[in-house]
């Protein structure tokens, strides 16, 4: 897969991630910094390492499956796997400036 194809696919994936929200926080999961890593392989498979705001998050069971379902609609992806990780633990410093502004942290 050519670099330009990976970049275009990554952009589509990020746009899909920006349509997923933590229901308790009115900011998408990409801007919240819940996505730690996107790993594409040559067959257009994607592994997403993501976290939640806390292990006790009420959407711990539903949000990862929602993310996977939305990513499966991204044109050009072959397969998607979500890997929920807790290290490093999420904190508000992982949010983008957009998210921090929207939530009044800046």
Topology overview:
Blueprint (H helix, E strand, L loop, with lengths): L2 H15 L11 H4 L2 E6 L4 E6 L11 H10 L7 E6 L12 H6 L4
Parallel strand pairs: 2-3
Antiparallel strand pairs: 1-2
Descriptive overview:
The protein has about 110 residues and is of the alpha+beta class. The protein has a single domain, classed as 2-Layer Sandwich (GMP Synthetase, Chain A, domain 3). The chain is built from 4 helices and 3 strands; from the N terminus they run ααββαβα. A 3-stranded mixed sheet has the order 1-2-3. It starts with a helix and ends with a helix. The model has no long low-confidence stretch (mean pLDDT about 90).
| Percentage of residues in strands | 15-25%
> Termini distance?
40 Å
Extended strand count:
3
Number of domains: 1
- Structural class from helices and strands? alpha+beta
Rounded to the nearest angstrom, the radius of gyration is 14 Å
Number of helical regions: 4
Strand order of the largest sheet: 1-2-3
Order of helices and strands: HHEEHEH
Q: Could you report the average pLDDT, rounded to the nearest whole number?
A: 92
Unreliable runs, pLDDT <50, ≥5 residues?
Answer: none
Any descriptors?
GMP Synthetase, Chain A, domain 3, 3-stranded mixed beta sheet, single chain, globular, alpha+beta, 106 residues
In short, what is this structure?
This protein is an alpha+beta fold. The protein has 4 helices and 3 strands. The mean pLDDT is 92.
């Amino acid at each position: 897969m050519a670099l330009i194809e990976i970049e275009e696919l990554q952009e589509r994936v990020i746009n899909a991630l920006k349509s997923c929200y933590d229901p308790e926080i009115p900011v998408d999961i990409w801007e919240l910094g819940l996505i730690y890593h996107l790993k594409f392989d040559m067959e257009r498979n994607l592994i997403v390492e993501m976290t939640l705001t806390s292990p006790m998050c009420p959407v711990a069971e539903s949000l990862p499956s929602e993310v996977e379902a939305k990513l499966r609609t991204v044109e050009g992806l072959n397969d998607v796997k979500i890997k929920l990780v807790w290290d490093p633990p999420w904190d508000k410093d992982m949010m983008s400036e957009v998210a921090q502004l929207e939530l009044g942290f800046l």
